Amino acid sequence: MVLSQRNAMPDSSKPFRILFVCMGNICRSPAGECVLRHLAEQAGVDEQLDIDSAGTIGMHSGHKPDHRMREAAADRGIKIDGAARQVKAQDLEDFDLVLAADTENLAELMALPGADAHADKVRLFCEFAGIGDRTSVPDPYYGGAAGFELVLDLLERGCEALVERVQNGELG
Predict the structure, then answer these.
(1) Is 27 marked active-site?
(2) 85 flagged as catalytic
(3) 18, 48, 55, 99: which is deepest, by most CB within 10 A?
(4) pLDDT, tens digit, for every residue of 59-87?
(5) How do the domains of the chain map onto residue ranges?
């Protein structure tokens, strides 16, 4: 299935826009954004994608990603950077695919004004990326180092599948 905005013919001159969403935009979603960017660069498909992240709450807006996530990712050779921002209804219009970390964030996204018109492109990351044994990327914020490692494992696995879909022409 080729996903494109409003089921129009895909415009191959424009990058396919993907937004990762978690609660605070300091752990899971910036990691998803940066893991996908890293893997897309390695695969040579980075120019086909425009990747961003946001949170369903604005509490951390302007803050860097969590230092524990940055450290865990750095150990894998992945740089996690950026600044947290809160998702807005316009994001549902602007992005071709919006990937929620878990069902709570999916519900928050679907509660945004106008979300019903974009329901086909708002999905759970694990389900869309084909991680069949999980539905959600767990929030590592209140746990230890193992939680950040698990999140990165899931994101790498799912983002590899997304890169493959881009290479196969299924996204774009």
Answers:
(1) no
(2) no
(3) 99
(4) 999 999 999 999 999 999 999 999 999 99
(5) 15-165
